[in-house]
Design a protein that fits this description.
172 residues, globular, mainly alpha
Length: 172
């Protein structure tokens, strides 16, 4: 089992690193001419905040169900949280492929905005491998390891979901 864990943990770390680099490139890197108007993606930020809201709901309800020892409901909510986070990421990547660069903040709370944004970006980067490892360990019934990492993963994932919504409302 240790060899199999080692293999899958390496895959998770490599996949997470590639994903983070790809997202950073899509936001900050150069893009081909004419993509800004190729497809109307103006609705995607609203879709992103909705999927973040769903993720938040699924995480909180999964926590509730595990506290009540309703394992099947917990598992289903966690898989739903993972699915809604994945939908968010796909939507986010599509939006940033067709829209160049990040939207600039023009509100009155610049310092607060950038503190929230920086912490959100940092923890969103960290949560990718953590969520995958937590999911992997739960799926493989490594319950002791799953519980250990889940206690760290949940608050970070909740923070990333909440701050994603906050950032949306500060920008739009």
């Amino acid at each position: 089992m240790q060899n199999q864990d080692s293999f899958w943990l390496k895959i998770i770390y490599i996949f997470s690193a590639i994903l983070v680099i790809a997202v950073a490139f899509l936001i900050l890197g150069p893009r081909p001419e004419g993509l800004d108007s190729a497809i109307d993606v103006s609705f995607l930020p609203k879709a992103n905040v909705i999927t973040n809201g769903f993720t938040l709901f699924f995480l909180l309800s999964a926590f509730y169900f595990i506290r009540k020892k309703q394992i099947t409901k917990h598992r289903n909510r966690m898989l739903s949280a993972f699915a809604s986070s994945t939908a968010f990421l796909v939507s986010y990547v599509i939006y940033h492929w067709f829209k160049s660069g990040p939207k600039l903040y023009t509100g009155d709370f610049t310092t607060l905005y950038y503190v929230i944004l920086f912490s959100h970006i940092l923890l969103a980067t960290v949560i990718i491998p953590m969520a995958l490892i937590t999911l992997y360990r739960g799926w493989n019934n490594q319950l002791t390891k799953h519980k250990y990492i889940a206690k760290i993963t949940l608050p970070i994932w909740l923070y990333v979901s909440v701050t994603g919504v906050v950032i949306y409302f500060m920008l739009y």
